[in-house]
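User: Need the bound-state model for magnesium ion:
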Amino acid sequence: MVIEGPAGIGKTALLAAARTAAADGGMRVLRSRGTELERDFAFGVVRQLFEPPLAEASELERADLLQAAAGVAAGLLGLPGAPADGPHSSSVDPSFTILHGLYWLCANLAAQCPLCLVVDDVHWADAASLRYLVFLLTRLEELDAALVVATRPREEGADAELLAAVTTDPSAEVIRLPPLTRPAVAHLLESRLGGPADPIFVDACLGATRGTPFLVGVLVDALSEGGIGPTAEAARHVERIGARTVGRSIALRLRRLPEHAGRLARALAVLEQSDLLQAGRLAGLEELEAAEAIRSSPAPNEHKPTAVPRDSSPGNPVRQSASHSTCWSASPPAMAGLSSGWSRPRARRGSRAL
Ligand SMILES: Nc1ncnc2c1ncn2[C@@H]1O[C@H](COP(=O)(O)OP(=O)(O)OP(=O)(O)O)[C@@H](O)[C@H]1O
Ligand SMILES: [Mg+2]
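Assistant: Bound-state model below.
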């Protein structure tokens, strides 16, 4: 199962619910998480999955789990309780030996008790672990095991091909998390701020956050700290507070984007609506650089200014990448947050700063 959605949409929260449901249903849950800093650490995500059950196992159980191929892989990876020098043949590709052995480790664990493997932020998983997940997926039906992963749709630097092999496997059920609905936002406001929420106030909060649970939470915290109740009169405060709080968290995310993408987003925030060429010029980017910047930006549903493609010739790379952006729009708080960090770029050769 693949849970997909942009930052702050509730993937980790849903995984937590999945873990609880699996454990309640008698499955053994093994979990791990990809992190930006550890993506160069081969098999890091896999180690997180399999180290705890090996460390917790008795000597007898461990000997059972690490029979034959599983023991060889554990030895190569230095997993807990692995034989110091496994009986592997030097003529076998070590990567296949590891994948094969890890498959058997998973199979041995699943033979003890139904398994639920849960991997959060799989877009940041190291390539070796992704390769293992692909290897495992094609053989998962043979095992009493389930794999649940959460991923952002497009993340800079992710190993796109391997990630796609995991997330688009024909056996995978994909859940794309939508933003919170209006009644859901109203419910959150009522439970956190007290009293029935006025529809005008709800609309203001929905507009400021676009229903992203993380941003709704940040906004509600700030409203609650400010002692602001969910009334129609108080709706005007939402934009101001939203600009400060929601804008700040968006600006933080933008700071982590590649430089071109951040500059383009700020330019679009200033222009509010623009075609890619114009926004690219303001950002001091060549047309193709701007198109690439759009491609490397977070997915729709996050707060994105709108860039409308100017060149609509089929197959044109600008059109193709910009087409993602036609459904983006910037809420006023988001734009305030973005444009506050704006500094005018130097004009570059071949481009015209506006
Ligand atoms: N359905 C929901 N209703 C209310 N709050 C929610 C809901 N889903 C998630 N949240 C809250 O929103 C915040 C962000 O959720 P979560 O961390 O699960 O997002 P995420 O998709 O994992 O983000 P990231 O990609 O950054 O890891 C959390 O504080 C979480 O408790
Ligand atoms: Mg998460």
